[in-house]
Every structure is written in C-alpha cells, then in structure tokens.
Design goal:
This protein is of the alpha+beta class. The chain has a single domain (about 5-60), classed as 2-Layer Sandwich (Alpha-Beta Plaits), CATH 3.30.70. It has helices spanning about 15-20, 45-55; strands spanning about 5, 25, 30-35, 60. It binds iron/sulfur cluster.
Length: about 60
C-alpha cells in the first residue's frame, strides 16, 4: 500500500505520528512528513490504524 494525504485537511496534530512513528513525522515547522514509497508490510497495520484515527480524515490508502 501507499499513503495519500489530503494536505489541506491535515492540522498537524501528530496523532498519526504517535501511532506509526516510523512512517509519519512532524518537521520543525509542524508540517507533516510521510515516508515515501510503499509501506513495509510489517507496518501496514499501524498505518491503517493511523488512517482510521486521523481526526481530520486527511489520510487514505492509495491501493
Ligand atoms: S493524524 Fe491526521 S491531522 Fe493529525 S497530523 Fe496525522 S494526517 Fe495530520
């Protein structure tokens, strides 16, 4: 799977960072950073949890 972001909806509250810190991060400007490329299989569960729990519905799976 790959991750899509509705950038206009993200409010950089860091919920996804807390759930899947190997995939999501916030930079010094509190902008969201998403690891590029396909999500490693062992992290897909965490990423799907992050997608489900994003309070702004800013994340989606591309596949
Ligand atoms: S949980 Fe959603 S709103 Fe919060 S930082 Fe992640 S993508 Fe943005």
């Amino acid at each position: 799977m790959e991750i899509g972001v509705h950038w206009d909806q993200c409010e950089a509250n860091g919920i996804c960072v807390g759930i899947a810190p190997d995939i999501f991060d916030l930079d010094d400007n509190d902008d969201l950073i998403v690891a590029e490329g396909p999500v490693p299989a062992q992290l897909e569960g965490d990423v799907r949890d992050a997608i489900a729990q994003c309070p702004k519905a800013a994340l989606f799976a591309k596949d």
